[in-house]
Amino acid sequence: MNNHAPLDYECPICLLLQGRDNKISKQSDIVYKDEYVMAFICVSKGI
Ligand SMILES: [Zn+2]
Asked: What does pLDDT average to in each consecutive run of 10 residues of the chain (47 residues)?
């Protein structure tokens, strides 16, 4: 699979999926999550 992300890039969505908060998203932003689907709101502004 081709990946355009820089080597040191930490994907905020992957962190969220792993149960970790990050500077953009927090666990409390997740509206729904099961083994197939995750839905979350975007609280941060100015990105
Ligand atoms: Zn990701």
From this structure: 87 92 91 95 71
